[in-house]
Design brief:
With 206 residues, the protein is α/β, with parallel strands linked by helices. It has a single domain, classed as Rossmann fold. The protein contains seven helices and five strands.
């Protein structure tokens, strides 16, 4: 029977412990890098947490020869639910909102825009950071503008607005949905810009 003979090269016994130390260091370094990678994924969501946005029901301002027809009112009413769902998809907290004829009239007449403090009070009652005041301006039978003004609840001020065009028939709900989602994307962009712009000011006050 053949015997297996192990051959250890000269100096190998001195090298092996050194390799063991290096491998341990590699393992620790790999673990550290993995932890840092996870932090980079998680921290932006913590540091730049998206705010809460209350979206009021959309009001119609119709300047056509046949204003406020049922189909147009139905299209306008469909805007706010789609806008809320879009912002939730983007990671915002959007409180449930039970509207009223009175508040819809205040939006339609521009009262909330003229008195943003009143809109901000609605936001505070829903624990929201922002309030979206949504209006559809219809100035022809086939073209209208969908606009949302954003009220900063902490400042009681209208800070910015987003808008998009809607073209086509008032019964084309696919087009209405597409325009509303575009409006939601603009709102997301605006709020992110405001959040980033406010960060240095927050740090300077500390």
């Amino acid at each position: 029977m053949k015997r297996t003979v192990r051959t250890v090269l000269p100096g190998a016994r001195d090298i092996l412990p050194e390799i063991g130390i290096n491998m341990s260091l590699v393992r620790r370094t790999t673990c550290l890098r993995f932890t840092i990678a996870i932090l980079f994924l998680v921290l932006p969501e913590v540091v730049f947490a998206k705010p809460s946005v209350l979206i009021l029901d959309c009001a119609l301002q119709d300047d056509t020869m046949l204003p406020d027809v049922p189909d147009e009112l139905a299209r306008t009413a469909s805007v706010a639910p789609v806008l809320r769902a879009t912002l939730r998809e983007f990671g915002y907290t959007v409180p449930d909102y039970v509207g009223s004829d009175e508040n819809l009239a205040l939006t339609e007449t521009g009262y909330f825009l003229a008195h943003p403090k009143i809109a901000a009070e609605l936001g505070r009652s829903h624990n929201a950071d922002w309030v979206g005041i949504c209006t559809q301006f219809k100035f022809s039978f086939l073209v209208s503008i969908l606009r949302v003004h954003l009220v900063d609840v902490a400042k009681n001020q209208v800070v910015t607005h987003a808008e998009t065009w809607m073209r086509g028939s008032m019964t084309d709900f696919r087009m209405t949905r597409r325009s509303t989602r575009s409006l939601g994307e603009q709102v997301d962009d605006l709020l992110q810009q405001i959040t980033v712009a406010d960060k240095p000011a927050d740090g300077a006050n500390r």
